[in-house]
Amino acid sequence: MGPGITFGFVVAGQLLISMLMEHFSLMGGSHHSISIGRGSGMLLIIVGVEVMKKF
After folding, report:
1. Alpha-carbon distance values, 10 to 25, 30, 36, 38 (Å)
2. Transmembrane region positions (predicted)?
């Protein structure tokens, strides 16, 4: 696994955790629920990393 794919997984993981933390208002943060736009954006990032793995 190259550095680009590793970096992609790190960014995707950080975004997923932050999205869940905002949804459940953890650590005193403000509440932002998971919407279709946010979920589809996260899905596009994961799909992009998977496409990078194939090439």
Report:
1. 22, 23, 22, 18
2. 7-26, 32-52
| Residue 35, in any domain of the structure | yes
Residue ranges making up the domain that contains 31: 15-54
**Alpha carbon distances (Å) from 2 to 10, 40, 43:** 12, 25, 21
Predicted TM-score (pTM) of this structure: 0.75
Q: Is residue 25 part of a domain?
A: yes
The Cα 21–Cα 30 span in angstroms is 9
Kindly report, residue by residue over 10-38, the tens digit of the pLDDT. Answer: 998 999 999 999 999 888 878 888 899 99
Rg of the chain over Cα atoms, rounded to whole angstroms, equals: 13
